[in-house]
Amino acid sequence: MSQIIRPATPEDIPQLVKLLLQDAKQRQAADGVLWKLAPDASAQIETALIAALTSEQQPFRQIWQVADEAGRISGVVHSMLLPVPPIYAGADGAPGLILPDSFAAPEACDGTVDALIAAAEAALRDAGARIILSSYVTGEDWRQALQRRGYAPLTLYLSRTGLDKAGPAAGVRPALETDVADIVRLSAENRQILFEIDPFWAPHPDADRRFAGWMRRSLTFDDRDMMVMGPPEELTGYTIAQPASRLHFPPAHDISGTGVLDDYVHRELANPAALANGGRGATLLLRAAEAAFAKRGIDAAFVVCPAHWQSKVEMLQAAGYETAMVWSIKR
What SUPFAM superfamilies does this protein map onto (predicted)? Predict the structure, then answer.
């Protein structure tokens, strides 16, 4: 049977809802806490598709493409132009990102996954992307196809579920506005390490000022816990335990019980190749963040970690974290 890859249309939505629900159930099977299905998962998928395929006002450029076999939709790929965080230079412009809610039905034609990825790459490059990223959670066919097409791991998302509410962690306290300057200093050191690991993370020349403004604003939010470690003006680490966002979780999933540690910095992790002091201080800071999540009723934590920051990966694995999602890069 002949197959074409084409842009999705609103008429495809009923078939897409069924496909994307199958996709979501595969993630749920991999980890039922982290990838918990929303009670109204089908309705959430439908609402997201209607907005993406009919609304003229989009918060970011997203692209939906389908594999069409004589009117039967056998696969879908979802991609977007990823806004560059303001602390990074973004010299190559907004990268393209192939999102995890991309799926091919088991009965799809051979080569459907490769064809969908190729179509997404072409559409993203037409949209101006010079670098393309991919996200992978489940589906061995997707992992192999991405690898064949030259994608290499860039960022790991490590997770742990069943968080316990621990007692107060020694030396960890809530962040204050007077800590912002020291947090910015630690962040600058961390950004330099990131850049040395991969130039993809080249810092913006105005990163310190921008980051300081964001930290002051973050202190006013009541949905997160900002914590620091060490004496005032001599901080050794900081972290922000914040709620999960839709960037990492497709609409079928209930993210109310999931928290994310993106800003997680400790001096013991400064050498990407070797952990200092056994990572004891870094682990205490991590456990304090987990306790903050548990106090808010959050039962799954997601930590963002560069794939080649070996000391941080080893420390997180020793603390019970496992890789739940991989973002890879194709230059």
Answer: Acyl-CoA N-acyltransferases (Nat)
My answer on whether 218 and 129 are in the same domain is: no
Same domain, yes or no: 104 and 204:
no
CB atoms within 10 A of CB 249: 23
- Residue 88 makes CB contacts below 8 A (sequence gap 6+) with 201, 202, 203, 204, 207
Assess whether 139 and 199 both reside in one domain: no
Total structural domains within the chain: 2
Cβ proximity of 30 and 248 under 8 Å: no
147 — phi, psi (to 5°)? -65, -45
262 with 180, same domain: the answer is: yes
Q: In this structure, are 50 and 120 located in the same domain? A: yes
Same-domain check for residues 47 and 145: yes
Number of neighbours of residue 330 by Cβ within 10 angstroms: 18
Q: Which domain holds residue 82?
A: 4-150
CB 246 within 8 A of CB 183: no
Amino acid at 149: R
- Among 36, 43, 38, smallest CA distance to 17 is for 43
Domain membership of residue 278 (yes or no) is yes
> Residue 331: inside a domain, yes or no?
no
Per-residue pLDDT of the chain (331 residues; tens, 9 = 90+): 589 999 999 999 999 999 999 999 999 999 999 999 999 999 999 999 999 999 888 777 899 999 999 999 999 999 999 999 999 999 999 999 999 999 999 999 999 999 999 999 999 999 999 999 999 999 899 999 999 999 999 999 999 998 877 766 789 999 999 999 999 999 999 999 999 999 999 999 999 999 999 999 999 999 999 999 999 889 999 999 999 999 899 999 999 999 999 999 999 999 999 999 999 999 999 999 999 999 999 999 999 999 999 999 999 999 999 999 999 999 8
